[in-house]
Amino acid sequence: MAEARRLRGHKATATCCIASRDRPGLVATSGEDGCICWFDMRCKDVVLTMDLGVNPISSLCFKPGNEDIIYVSSGLEVKCFDVHLADAWKPLESYNYNKEEINQIACNSKSSFLASADDDGDVKIIDIRQKCLYKTLRAGHTSICSSVQFLPWRPWEVITGGLDSKLVMWDFSKGRPYKIVDFGMPDMENSSSAGQCLNPAFVHAIAVPEVDMLEKSGKICVVARGDGVVDVINIESELAAAQSKTSLKPQKGSKSKSKGSVSTVAETLNQNGRKRLHLDYSLGGHTASVSCVAFALFGERGKSIISGGNDKTVKVWGCSRYLDAEQPSSSNDVLHLNINLSKKVNWLCTTPADSENLVICDTTKVVKVYTVS
């Protein structure tokens, strides 16, 4: 692989990166220096630096349909900026609903709601059209909520991951979970293989495909786990199993009915018709905690999954065809590319371009860009 291009602009560790869908080659990165740096891959140097203060920036997301608007989380606060407005960087909106540090923010595909996941295990759903708090999602996680994503094909549903090793699916219109996958429960079929790291299966990051990727990817969720595993879960199969499980339970009055509405499972591939892929060390996977996952915007959108980890590697997986078949038997089947780095990976994103299409934030202030063909 060719040597990485280096993007310089931050004065401290880069924490997050996002790539424009509308303008290929435009990338925004955030850092512990409280800055957002904008890079155009056609230009040598940083195009624009937004200095937003001294607090580290934990997460970024564009407003779908209008990428001139960017949402930024820092500390307990979410701010909204128009990148074309004056250099003072005064936010258009500011939301202070989280009581603990925010780990990730996400905007739904219709640009009507924003979710912010925090250290308390709570997720705030903000109505960004009415500019108010819509719902607090609570009691799904017993520890830090590290990650959140809206499901683009289910307009009232959101999925979260936490350091309690749980993946929680919510109906945010009702404010309650209806499905919990607990990766911390004993799991004989998918037990760690020899060489797999022994860290807890904390959920550090999740990724779901965009609507235009579904034909290639299916309606799945990709989970970055603390034990080095990347799990690929067929959401619709999980939900169908949860609903059939719920319908089989006796329902005596409203109380038992509400209890039966949440299904907690640790079942594995092919039980009750579910499909899960378990991309672990035996398939060439990570040997330390996986910190981030993303769907590739390059090539056939949604066909490849990218993961980065604390083992200083980034891996490109091609696993869409296995969701309707058996677990792959070797890394030759599913691991398409392994990139060795010199530092642990904080975050990564991809661009729709044919070159310079993989952007990596590691534990330094210099952002690296690779070409994956």
UniProtKB/TrEMBL annotation:
Official protein name in the record: WD repeat-containing protein 53
WD repeat extents: 283-317
Family annotation (Pfam families): WD40
Keywords from the UniProt entry: Repeat, WD repeat
Region (Disordered) residue spans: 244-265
Native organism taxonomy: Eukaryota, Viridiplantae, Streptophyta, Embryophyta, Tracheophyta
Signal peptide coordinates: none
The keyword Metal-binding is annotated on this UniProt entry: no
Superkingdom as given in the UniProt entry: Eukaryota
